[in-house]
Amino acid sequence: MFCTKAKLTLCTVPSVGEEAHFSCQLMDSKDVLQVTWQKILPEQDKNMVTYNKYFGQRVNSDFRDKVKFKDVGLKNCSIVMRNITEQDEGCYLCLFNCYPDGSPSTPRLCCLVSMVTASRLDVQ
User: Residue 52 needs a FRET pair 20 to 30 A away by CA distance; which of 12, 25, 31, 121 works?
Assistant: First the structure.
C-alpha cells in the first residue's frame, strides 16, 4: 500500500543539458518501507530509483547514467536528473510504500524542460 499525504517539489526548471532536482516529503506518520521514483509513460510507469529500508539504494539500469540520489531517506527523498533532454519532459511519481495501510493514490510532479540551450556569442 502507498501513503497519500506527500509533498512534491521541483527545485529547478531545467534547460536542455542542465540538471533537474526533484524532492518529495511524506506528510503521514506511517512506517515507510520503501520510496520509489517513477517516470509516467503512456504504456506503463517505469521505476527509476528505489530506496528500501532493508536493501538500500537501487538505480534502474535504464537510468543509471541519468538519475542519482541527492538526499536519501524514508520520509524525505531527493533525486537529480543529469543532462536533461527533451525526452525527459514529462510527469514523475514519488511513491512511499507504507505499512500497514494506505492508498495507491499519489500526487504527480510534471517537469517542463526549457528548450533554451546555452550558446556562445563572440563579439569581434
Answer: 12
What is the tally of structural domains in the chain? Answer: 1
Q: Mapping DSSP to helix (H, G, I), strand (E, B) and coil, where does residue 109 land? A: strand
CA–CA dist 82, 32 (Å, integer): 27
- Domain residues for the domain of 29 are 6-111
Q: Return the C-alpha cell found at 3.
A: 501513503
Ramachandran area for residue 102 (φ above 0: left; ψ -120 to 50: alpha; else beta): left
Residue of 50, 87, 43, 84 lying closest to 65 (CA atoms): 84
How far is 53 from 13, CA to CA, in rounded Å?
A: 30
CATH code of residue 62: 2.60.40.10
Count Cβ neighbours within 10 Å for each residue of 103-119 and write b for 16 or more, e otherwise.
eeebeebebebeeeeee
Output the pTM of the full model.
0.77
Q: Is position 95 within any domain?
A: yes
- Strand ranges across the sheet with 108-111: 56-59, 46-52, 31-39, 90-99, 108-111
